[in-house]
């Protein structure tokens, strides 16, 4: 009996589409979602007891590998002391200090429970701080599912073929302007015309929700300069890239500092922790000090924060990212050689422990270029990999994630699987 199928049939009766987050439903690749029952290191096992080498890592957080003993111990110890108090705790202070220490642009942070809350709150803060309404985002960037951000977004919306959501009032979306990613001229023109009405610009510095598209350095530099010149708050959304692409997140990679940064995923180590923070003069506008309201029953939850602290304490060890980069580099070199030998158009991108695989001869630099790649080849490739015990994100528009727990053998078997998968789709 196929337990995945049995569970999916049951789930589909009581949950829309049988899932609690759309991309999990395998809609764009077809087939039955795998129901995972346990995970360890670089692997997880489905309800049929089939093992997979995991390259989604819970969509980014699991950077030290599944069920790392330090993280599990920290969670168990915290849980034994109580699951939540709704009061300040020592662990939250330690977490805030650690984040401000690790990322130079953070002078103050507030902890929340999801990336969506972090971006939504950062935008409210930017509007409250500037007294302006208009928000600028970029095509194909996903910043969570709050109303004003579900306009030409990426991730699940792209996977389902519709980058904007029903149910978002026109009145809300009219204050969100969308520009093409990496288009310096469009940026300059917009600021020239409307710069002093713009509350904030939000971007994914490496867009992982339309596969993997990195901002050009000139684009980042121009954005920083224009935001400073016009008093617009630059929000760098590092929910995915934060402590995933390098020691100081994408801001370290580019040498550009945000006014506000949003974090999530890795900082919770698999548990619901996210944060927004940045310049102290902006953060001073948050309640209870200032007039911008934001709150959360579970914000800074002690068990979740314990998982995050334990994870970050591993991530900040010397050599962590060198090791991770080597693993990602080796994986991608193997993929590229395999695709080349099979005659499949293919390119890759990576930074730290995050990577993109494209069915195109050159890595895309914009949403339009991503859409022009052979995304039609992805479903067969995905299933061929799955049949070989390798779990990639079930969408051509999502980044992949390496963890410190992936061994050389795991990488070699993934490449061997890719050889078979490329050969299968090249016929
Ligand atoms: N921002 C970015 C860049 C993301 O990748 C995501 C989620 O994938 C979010 C925000 C939303 O985070 P969450 O799913 O925790 O609400």
UniProtKB/TrEMBL annotation:
Localization terms from the record: Cytoplasm
Catalysed reactions, as listed in the record: (S)-4-amino-5-oxopentanoate = 5-aminolevulinate
PANTHER family: GLUTAMATE-1-SEMIALDEHYDE 2,1-AMINOMUTASE, GLUTAMATE-1-SEMIALDEHYDE 2,1-AMINOMUTASE 1, CHLOROPLASTIC-RELATED
Gene (name only): hemL
Ranges for region Disordered: 1-20
One GO BP: protoporphyrinogen IX biosynthetic process
The protein, known as: Glutamate-1-semialdehyde 2,1-aminomutase
Organism annotation: Hydromonas duriensis
Enzyme Commission (EC) number: 5.4.3.8
Lineage: Bacteria, Pseudomonadati, Pseudomonadota, Betaproteobacteria, Burkholderiales
Subunit structure: Homodimer.
Keyword field: Cytoplasm, Isomerase, Porphyrin biosynthesis, Pyridoxal phosphate
N6-(pyridoxal phosphate)lysine found at: 265
GO cellular component term of the entry, any: cytoplasm
Needed cofactors: pyridoxal 5'-phosphate
Principal EC category: isomerase
